[in-house]
Amino acid sequence: EDQNAAVSSAFFDGDIDDTQRSTQLGKLDLLIASHKLAMVYFAFAVVFPYCLWQIVLVVGDLIEPVHHLAESNSSLALVERLATSLVRCFGITVENGRALITDAHRDMDTTTTTTAFLAFYVSYALGFITPDFARFGTLSREAASAPAQHSGGAAGHGQAKGSEESSNWLIAIQVPEEALNEAYLMRHASANTVHLDDDTDTEGSGPSADTPPDDSQRQSVPTINCEWAKAGVDEAGVPKHPAFPRFLAGEKGNLANAKARWLRTCEWRAEGRIDEILLQPHPYFHVIRKNQPSNYYGRGKHGHPVYIDRPGGVNLKALKKAGVKLSDLLFHFMYSTEFLWTQLEPSEKARTISILDVNGIGLWDFRGEVIDFVRKTISLSGEHYPERAHKIFIVNVPRIFNTIWAVIKPMLDEATREKVGLFRTGYKEALLKEIDADQLPECYGGTCPIPLGESLEDRMLNSHVCKILIEKGIPMKDDDGKDIPGTPESLAKYVDDSLPYGVSKFPEQ
To answer: Could you tell me if 127 and 37 are in contact, meaning their C-beta atoms sit under 8 angstroms apart?
Structure first.
């Protein structure tokens, strides 16, 4: 712990003083309680009414068959009357034993959507305004911990525990005591991100909090086994790798935060073997690309690569039938992302222009594993690929998408949210401001006749995947998750080593 604390104080150069840091940590309990309360409000104000509305619609659909059965079974007449009364309470007209449920009812384009939005924003606001008892709970716990520290006996410990349990349950259950211990947090962070050499002297040889490390100590701080970390640091302790300026920009110039984020990314790349991911076989590639359509397609006016994703075309049933798991989808996401930034466009200054076509997506499509996948991909992109988005166009937005966007939006950092544009119509003009017509497919207002999936960029990615499968002797999977007969040998027709791998098209100036 002493070694890690010394390295931490040497590496983090003190851009955040002790007063600021302790203030931030002191607010952690209130912040967590606020979010927990917001979720409680959200559940009661949005999720419960939505589920109730769906039940009402199901009951409304059942009224007609129950009405016909009631003509021959008088005992069902009471059930019909109760169901009719229920749906009428929610404003649905019932005539001649049939509930007049319109498309507006099913699409929730009326009262339910409006109240869901209002309830969400009101509940989230209440989550930050009302939990004053969270602060009182913290004070009660701190007061209770004082006699326990001085008594040193079982009675003192029991008294502290009893007082803690009687205070705010959100804090008592969700926030460990170490969360407010600055020294513990700093040692824990350094222990998980910085690895010292085994032969480091444990007494007196490490740099102190007030003494900057010498050159040899600086070079030995990041011993994480990944290519980014191997670039080392300069005399000021700043990483030399050309990707680091993006991390610094992502942290708005805060050097200490940028270094911490850089170390987390280097550790993540080492543990996940991200540097080697393109050398690993990807047998589910064709299945995933078929049932989770996403493509790289041309360049923007300033050389930024264009990425087109169509989440409305995702076929979860087909993916599950093929045996594709969430981990396989995340692997595919990381595989494609690394291919983009190492083979399609290796420039550190390049960004993506993303077109997210949400046509056909429904609220029921955005649940369970889908939310988990979106959350994890956004988290990975935001944490480990900062400053990689130029523009994000969300097009063909249905009305119901506003509810989905309310869930996704908080997952994005502020800088990314500012780059997002939502378009129900009129998006073609916006796209042509960033992308030349000959670089945009016809279906999005361009003049390029090349179908999605057959662009130069997609052919490069497909060629690389097939080449690795051939080298490893691993067959490609079909829609049933079985080996495709004749593969991997038959994949040779897709391999083209003459394609421009690793060549940047982005102007550096």
So the answer is: yes
Q: Could you tell me the CA-to-CA distances from 411 to 39, 312, 425 in Å, in that order?
A: 15, 20, 25
Q: Which residues of the chain have pLDDT under 50?
A: 1-26, 109-110, 128-222
- Which pLDDT score, from 0 to 100, does residue 402 have? 73
CB proximity list for 323: less than 8 A, separation 6 or greater: 284, 477, 481
Q: What is the DSSP string of 279-311?
A: GS--TTHHHHHHHS-EEEEEE-TTS-EEEEE-G
- Those residues whose C-beta lies under 8 Å from the C-beta of residue 199, and which sit 6 or more positions away, are none
Measured distance CA(504)–CA(351) in Å, rounded: 12
Contact 235, 215 (CB under 8 A): yes
Contacts of 502 (CB under 8 A, 6+ apart): 342, 343, 346
CA diameter of the chain: 93
Q: Which helix (H) or strand (E) holds 422?
A: strand 420-423
The per-residue pLDDT for 40 is 66
| pLDDT score at 135 | 43
* CA 377 – CA 381 distance, rounded (Å): 6
